[in-house]
Amino acid sequence: MEYVKICGLKKYDHVQICIENGADAVGFLYNVPS
Fold first, then answer.
1. What pLDDT is attached to residue 22?
2. Which of 13, 16, 18, 19 can pair with 7 through a Cys bridge, CB separation 3.0 to 4.6 Å?
3. Range of 23's domain?
4. Is 22:3 a contact under the CB 8 Å cutoff?
């Protein structure tokens, strides 16, 4: 079984960090309860 790493982001700056860490998918989170 393969695992897919998905990053949930609130800031665009974190996209590069997730890609460097091997994320397969990057998603942005909106209206997330604190």
1. 75
2. 18
3. 1-34
4. no
